[in-house]
Every structure is written in C-alpha cells, then in structure tokens.
Amino acid sequence: MRVQMTVNGEERVCDAKGSESLLFALREHLHLTGSKGACEQGECGSCSVLLDGELVCSCLVMAVDAHGSEVVTVEGMGGAELHPVQKALIDAGAVQCGFCTPGFVVAAAALLDENPAPSSDEMREGLAGNICRCTGYGAILRGLETLVGDR
C-alpha cells in the first residue's frame, strides 16, 4: 500500500506491505535510521517518535496506519542546531552507546512540551517507557533537570 505522511515537515511517500511497522518504513523505505529497533514489542522506547503529536513506539504502529499523519523522528528534532534536550544530554554525559538516546530525546522533548517544568518524579514517569542499559538513568535525569532549571 502506498503510504503518504509528513515526516519531519516534509511530504514523504513509501510503499509498505500491510504487516510492516512504521519503524520499518522509516528505517528501510525512508532511510531515517535514528529511531532504533531493539525489542520490537514496545517495551524499550528506542523507536519512539511523535505521531500526530503523540509519543508512540513506532514498532507497534503499522505503517499503513500512519497514512495521512504527521511523524517527527529524532532527525527532525534539532534542525541546524542540536535540540535543547540533545545538548542537555550531551553536556551531562548521558550519551554512552547511543542506542537508546533517540528514544529518550523524543520522549523528553514530548514531556517538556507538555509540562515545561516537571518534577523529578514526573520526569521519571514521563521517561518510564524508555530503557537504557548503559547510563543507569542518573546522567539522563541530571541533564534534563539542568534543562528544566533553565526554563
């Protein structure tokens, strides 16, 4: 099926089989490899994108169901400069292997758009769908806390 969507502000079209996930379409058909496929079950958050403004695991969304939608991937977050979340995570040393980082960036940006000054507990809750096996989360939370302090 022909799937037309706006991805990172640009009209994009791809041919997707009925069983292909949005993650697969983004990575394989549109060559946007920032979103990572790790668990393929919606448990880790590495494939997080914004779909019509809502944070979703793109591995759980069928590509055909994204037809006519607006999708924002990690590649669409910063533009010419780093997104503030990206910079905060880098400055805090929260980026290690980098596999989970795209999902954390998208999830944190969505959280901060919804709640510009979340408490530590609200940050933990907002990022609960993302798993990191390298950082232990401390550096990620410290980076976001410095960002919240700047607002």
Task: Describe this entry's structure for a reader.
This protein is of the alpha+beta class. The longest helix has 14 residues, at 101-114. The protein is built from five helices and five strands, in the order E-E-H-E-E-E-H-H-H-H. The chain has a five-stranded mixed beta sheet, sandwiched between helices.
Can you lay out the helices and strands and say which pair or pack?
Blueprint: E1 2-7, E2 10-15, H1 22-29, E3 48-51, E4 54-57, E5 70-72, H2 84-91, H3 101-114, H4 120-126, H5 138-149
Parallel strand pairs: 1-5
Antiparallel strand pairs: 1-2, 3-4, 3-5
Helix pairs in contact: 2-5
Q: Give the helix proportion (percent range).
A: 25-40%
Structural class of the secondary elements?
alpha+beta
Sheet with the most strands, sense and barrel status: 5 strands, mixed
Strand content: 15-25%
| Overall average residue pLDDT | 93
Q: Helix count, per DSSP?
A: 5
The radius of gyration computed from the alpha-carbon positions, rounded to a whole number of angstroms, is: 15 Å
What's the shape?
globular
Distance between the termini: 44 Å
